[in-house]
Amino acid sequence: MQERRGMMFYRMLEKSFHSKRHRLWFPPLTSVDLPDIWIPNKDTSINTNSIGQTARVLEGKPIANNINSRIAAEICEMKNRIGKTPGLGVILVGGRRDSQSFVHIKVKACVKVGIAPFTVELPEDCSEAELLDAVSSFNENPLIHGVIVQLPLPKHLDEEKIISYVSPEKDVDGFHPTNMGNLAMRGREPSFIPCASKSCIELLLRNDVEIKAKNVVVVGRSKLVGLPTSLLMQVDHFLILPNWKLLSLAWCIYNAQRHHATVTTVHAFTGNPEQITRGADILVSDIGVPNMIRGHWLKPGVIVVDMGANSVEDTSSLQGHCLVGDVCYEEAIVKASCTPVPGGVGPITISMLLSNTVDTAKRTYRHTQ
Known about the structure:
Layout: H1 2-18, H2 34-37, H3 61-82, E1 87-93, H4 97-113, E2 116-122, H5 128-140, E3 146-149, H6 159-165, H7 177-184, H8 195-206, E4 215-219, H9 226-232, E5 237-240, E6 254-257, E7 262-266, H10 273-277, E8 282-285, E9 303-306, E10 310-313, E11 321-324, H11 329-332, E12 337-338, H12 345-365
Parallel strand pairs: 1-2, 1-3, 4-7, 4-8, 8-9, 9-12
Antiparallel strand pairs: 5-6, 10-11
Helix pairs in contact: 3-12, 4-12, 8-9, 8-12
């Protein structure tokens, strides 16, 4: 009976949505610009839970190492059977320190598992035509099975146009409009799921975190992380099965699941962000502001997945800077199970990129075990 009522409500809502009279309007999704709009609370007190214990650290490295070892074995098998290996094309524009670092990490990870990396570096002032030529070259190269354009791009380049130019079948980042659209629609199957969002779900499942019926708050609605993560918490999608004995040639068999979480998005125009986040069972942060989310934003026992990766000045570091998350880790860890930055979802995100690249290579070669 409850299911019938739910279906009737859904049909009424759907009818209202398509009605001209009751046409709903949604503002465009924009990147969060928190420093100018959203001023964080200045309270610097450290919160503790009722028994004063620290919660567990949700480490990503062991999970990533496990996944990468399976990928390496799969690639070795592919090479032995058909003499082929996956290839990943990476395009870097400009000299941003963080982008260069991310590309270096991705290329190093490819080499370690046996994926052939192909890189193109373009100057900061390159033309849009030059960048599109580089993307087109990778799209047409049969040795390259996945193509990524390192983001963000310089402001004079149309990021949406460039992303749309990547072949959907090689869009291992999962940002192409076709893949994002299929992700959002019930019953559709995107060729690829965005790696960061996929890694968030993977980390939760590997740590036996129940998502169904939980209150999930996603802080941030960027198209790269926040938006697809919100969708993944609710819609049909495909996840790596933890039972490796079920593997065929593809080490990552995908299993359609529906998590049925209740998802709330907090963004730059949300008037009461701290009140909303304190009601979260699971909190995912994607705002790009160092230490923005403080301890008093969280309720005891919450699961915190910090997707932020912010470079801040650090005179004690040899590099002169260090990487921190959106969540104030020292305050969060005394009351929440929390991912560290670095070492949380980052390593798993790289593993998901490698996984997507292997998947598209197998589709290309029709390789079966």
